[in-house]
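pasting for ref
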Amino acid sequence: MTTLSRLPDPGPAEASATARTHGPRPGSWLARGLLAAGALAVLALLALVVLLLAAHQTAWAAGVLAALCVAVLIHTLPGLYAWRYVLPGLLAVAVFIVLPMAYTLAISFSNYSAAHLLSFERATQVLLARHDSDGSGLDFALHRQGPRLQLRLQDDEGRAFDTPAFDAPSPSALSPLADPLAQPPMQPLPLQAVAADARPPLSAPLDPRALVELLPLLATLELQAADGHRYRLTSLHRFADHRPRYTLQADGRLQDQRDGSALRADHAAGVWRTAAGQALEPGFRSGVGWDNYRRIFSDERFLQPFVRVFVWTVSFAGLNTLLTFALGLVLAVAMNWDALPHRGWYRLGLFLPYAVPAFISIPIFRGLFNENLGEINAVLHALFGMRPGWFSDATLARSMVLIVNTWLGYPYMMILAMGLIKAIPEELYEASALAGAGPLTNFCRITLPLIARPIAPLLVASFAANFNNLTLIALLTDGAPDFLDTELPVGATDLLASYTYRMAFHDGGQNYALACAISSLVFLIVAGLAIVNLRLFGQDAARAR
């Protein structure tokens, strides 16, 4: 009979290695803490799923539940252990990149805007909730009959009406926070015409204070007269005629109660239309396919400003990248000059624009360039007798934007260039000096060629960052000066990012769908730049290896 010998206990080194490889040992305080944290996270996500289902967000609830199941499987199955290190990164990419981009794309294929905010069902409910009134009404008094209540009413012609007695709810059943005039009718009561002098005596009517306490109840009452008129509460002393303007038909259309005409839902435009074709508000969200993209390139109202803004955006990004690189490189070469005294102080001073946040620097520049009170115009007026219109002239405004962004961006390029220059062997400059070359020759033949290749990917990244520099335009010019020959509000200094922002949140009817379509195009442009960057410089790196 074969016996199994007992394996020796691992030493401290082996136990430590095992813990690093396979995680904390089961039963340790760390393992119990991680298990408890995981259980709480699972419960929290399950609660989120329940809340999403309660809010009728079935797709989001299914997505969260699927992600939770994947996470549980990865953390419980030993064969998927390696995925535990990849899962956080994948979740971050999904939450912060994939979902926002997918949501933006989804909106770009709809008509979502300030005029089409609601869903089809909600817009239909809003129309069904509209009522007409011919101005007639009934003054009322509320009386108690033991535990019950009764209304006594009188119309504008002096005729008297009573309602049957109805139950009074307990005070705890009435919500003082509810809007008393926005509650749906719950208890239709018939109006009974009576002779005023033949009414049986009742207790004294309730005072206004008691009526205020019963407002949530009174707001649910709907009174119906024998001629079909209906009345709803409009004040503490009056019920007014309250007839629905539209009714829902069996075929899904709405009928106008004024003239009996039918309304149809125009899903292509996202509105309900009358028989004469007039669109009713509010509109509703609907899918429009590629219409927003076609409008950008085919509708002259959108094409003309889009082309202008696109050309300026490319010019701004290219010029700013070139100017910041040129200025940063020149200053980096100067700071690496050994004969320059106090180089450390100069470096510190030149680095300060990069240390100050843009949210502080840009408003300061806006004040400096002020046409009437700014220090820059004050100096120019004192020296040359001129006050340029920095914010009213398109060329000057664009020049100002380039100047300010060059000031904000050159320290970054200077730091990069200083590091790359330090990596150039000194022997090259010594050999150049022996050959009688000067500083300009050294710069053109040695410094610039040797730093051009390693800094090129960063220049592409700088171009992409300036392509979407919304902060600069929003804080400095807000797109001004605006063009006067375009239907949509767009300015001479607007970039695609600021133009999209103005279209979505400020001007142009808050057209979120069209703004998302432009954002998707900007994303494709920037993504194309990133792909080119990775392909070109990835191949260069492979050749270097």
